Amino acid sequence: MAISGDLEIFNFVDIFQILRKDKKDGILVVESEDKKLAVYFKEGDIVFIRPVKKVFYIYLDIDFLAVLKKENLDKDDLYKYLVARLPILLAIKKGKFSFTSGFIKYPENIKPQIPIEKLIMYLSRQLSQNEVERKISDPKLIYTKAENFEELAKKAYLTDIEKRILFLIDGKKTVEDIKKELNVKDLTLKRALYGMLAAGIIKRVKREKKLGFNLTKNLLKKIVNVIKGL
């Protein structure tokens, strides 16, 4: 899988959503005017961030241990450097990105230190009204919890208000219903929904398409079966 694009069109929440869903190993290259960063993913989670002078340097090493050796690091240093470099990565708002999967080889003992779901929710809390409106513009949208929502919500470190929003998501209440019941700000609610959707905690309930004469597909099917039985 190879994806690429502009950070002004696809923010990190959208990018991380794709990489989390596919659980791929690979390298995300992020380039701004003054920075070039290689973000190493293992099974959809970030394990390391490496600044480079030239992008092609990234592809000289196909073994992750060789990368650490060049950086004069040990695997025990990964968390410290990841925490230090994450703010630098997430502060980039303009630039381009590309992801190449299956390129880098990781040893079994390299484990993700920060759940990608936690980063997704952190970034979602900073989205603008225009950004959230791209996915959650209709107040009549309905969401339901994913089957493994408890596990993912734990990884995401939800805030109290986000937990209350999640509690009310039942596959029946609309965005508008939740907003009224909690008396929460529109942007706060939509940020939470955007993040939980990207983190896989919730999913959208598809509306049943209506046909002419206000008939649903299921109702039409029943009528056809009755007619056949006459």
Helix count, DSSP H or I runs of 4 or more residues: 10
What's the alpha carbon Rg, rounded to whole Å?
22 Å
Structural domain tally: 2
Order of helices and strands: EHEEEHHEHHEHHHHEH
- Major β-sheet, in short? 5 strands, antiparallel
Number of strands: 7
Shape by Cα distribution: elongated
Helix proportion range = 40-55%
Q: Strand order of the main beta sheet, please? A: 1-5-2-3-4
Beginning-to-end CA distance, first to last residue: 53 Å
Structural class: alpha+beta
Average pLDDT reading: 89
Task: Note down, in words, how this protein is organized.
The longest helix is centred in the middle third of the chain and has 13 residues, at 78-90. This protein has two domains: 2-113, no CATH class; 118-204, no CATH class. It is elongated. Helix 1 (12-22) packs antiparallel against helix 4 (116-124), helix 4 (116-124) crosses helix 6 and helix 4 (116-124) packs antiparallel against helix 9. The relative contact order is 0.14. The mean pLDDT is 89. Strand 3 and strand 4 form a beta hairpin. The chain is an alpha+beta fold and 230 residues long. Strands 1-5-2-3-4 form a five-stranded antiparallel beta sheet. A two-stranded antiparallel ribbon has the order 6-7. It contains ten helices and seven strands. InterPro entries: PatA-like_N, WH-like_DNA-bd_sf, WH_DNA-bd_sf. Residues 4-129 form the PatA-like N-terminal domain.
Could you name the key traits of this structure?
alpha+beta, 5-stranded antiparallel beta sheet, two-stranded antiparallel sheet, 10 helices, 16% strand
